[in-house]
Design a protein that fits this description.
With 145 residues, the chain is α/β, with parallel strands linked by helices. It contains five helices and five strands. Strands 2-1-3-4-5 form a five-stranded mixed β-sheet. The chain is globular.
Amino acid sequence: MRRALAEARLAGEAGDVPVGAVVLGPSGETVAAGHNDRERAADPTGHAEIVAIRAAAAARGAWRLAGCTLVVTLEPCTMCAGAAVQSRLDRVVYGAADLKAGAVGSLWDVVRDRRLNHRPEVIAGVMADECAALLTEFFTRRRVG
């Protein structure tokens, strides 16, 4: 999660919402990392999870990320939760819950929907306070500035 937080800080420094993600391989090695890039890229799909999943698939040369873990600072939205299912990730680990758009248990629970053919394990609340504080700081500065 510390690596994902470092990625989130990069997003914040670039003026984007500070969310970071890392894809870990079966042995715990970092396969890829990414952070929100919507503003710079003018891309609505430029969420940290999508950036990291795309980079991991490219690094592995395959779209199936079986054996891998997605670690992200904020609970994934529906798009990102769907990408976790579609990429066949083994697990999703996240920090802060997203009560407004979270799709891994808060508002929706896409990844555990029994109608889907793949359901990653979910580990929630890892370093949640630190992850949430980064977001709170960012939005507080935006409101003041």
